[in-house]
Every structure is written in structure tokens, then in C-alpha cells.
From TrEMBL:
<feature type="transmembrane region" description="Helical">
    <location>
        <begin position="79"/>
        <end position="100"/>
    </location>
</feature>
<keyword id="KW-0472">Membrane</keyword>
<keyword id="KW-0812">Transmembrane</keyword>
<dbReference type="GO" id="GO:0016020">
    <property type="term" value="C:membrane"/>
</dbReference>
<feature type="transmembrane region" description="Helical">
    <location>
        <begin position="34"/>
        <end position="54"/>
    </location>
</feature>
<dbReference type="Pfam" id="PF00420">
    <property type="entry name" value="Oxidored_q2"/>
</dbReference>
<comment type="similarity">
    <text>Belongs to the CPA3 antiporters (TC 2.A.63) subunit C family.</text>
</comment>
<dbReference type="InterPro" id="IPR050601">
    <property type="entry name" value="CPA3_antiporter_subunitC"/>
</dbReference>
<feature type="transmembrane region" description="Helical">
    <location>
        <begin position="6"/>
        <end position="27"/>
    </location>
</feature>
<keyword id="KW-1133">Transmembrane helix</keyword>
<protein>
    <submittedName>
        <fullName>Na(+)/H(+) antiporter subunit C1</fullName>
    </submittedName>
</protein>
<dbReference type="InterPro" id="IPR039428">
    <property type="entry name" value="NUOK/Mnh_C1-like"/>
</dbReference>
Length: 120
């Protein structure tokens, strides 16, 4: 049990991922599915940022004196997360645009109702 309390950022990331995954699976509203997908994205970003931070090291910016490679955190996880955020925002915008078009076509954003319209 101490593992969860000592690694609270990772624990919060896992809880957020579960909330997002549950929201994605259990709702038929497309807007809620997009929100669930975004919660899952943020949980993954939180997890990687928490794992990339090393206590006692500085950000990889040399101010006055170079401290050696062991004096700084690895900048690769931060760069990957920044790229992931850009991809996440683009994916969300595209999904919202498709949802808007579905709403214009069918008058609803409920995927069950849209599926039933196609069968009638």
C-alpha cells in the first residue's frame, strides 16, 4: 500500500486513466467519449512526466556552470510529451469537427441513435 502513497503521481495517473477509459466505454454520447479520450491522454502525459522527473536534478538549461550529465534531468520525456499534447489537441479538434458534422446530418450526437437511424 505504501507504493501507491509514495508514487502518488503515478497513482493519480492510473486513476485518471481508469476514469477516462470508463467514460469512453460506458457513454454513447460522442462528446463524452471525446472527453474520456482526453482524460486518458492527460493521464498518460502525467505518468510520463512523473517518471521523467528525478529528485535533486535541474532542468536541462545551463545557466552559469555545466553540472555534467548527472546534474540534469533527461529532456527527451518532456519533448515527447510536448509532441503528444500537440497530437492530442489536433485529434480532439478533428473528432469535434466530425461530431459537429454528425450532429448536422442526424440531429444528435448519441451514437446509438445514429446507428438506429441507419437501420430504419
Amino acid at each position: 500500500m505504501d507504493v501507491f502513497f509514495n508514487n502518488y503521481f503515478e497513482t493519480a495517473a492510473m486513476i485518471l486513466f481508469g476514469i477516462g477509459f470508463t467514460t469512453l466505454l460506458l457513454n454513447s454520447n460522442l462528446i463524452k467519449k471525446i472527453i474520456g479520450f482526453n482524460i486518458m491522454d492527460m493521464a498518460i502525459f502525467l505518468f510520463f512526466i512523473a517518471r521523467g522527473y528525478i529528485e535533486g536534478r535541474d532542468s536541462p538549461i545551463i545557466v552559469k556552470v555545466f553540472k555534467g550529465a548527472e546534474g540534469y534531468i533527461n529532456p527527451v520525456p518532456s519533448a515527447l510529451i510536448l509532441t503528444g499534447i500537440v497530437v492530442s489537441v489536433s485529434t480532439t479538434a478533428f473528432a469535434l469537427a466530425l461530431t459537429l458534422k454528425l450532429h448536422e446530418q442526424y440531429g444528435t450526437v448519441d451514437i446509438d441513435e445514429i446507428s438506429n437511424v441507419g437501420e430504419e
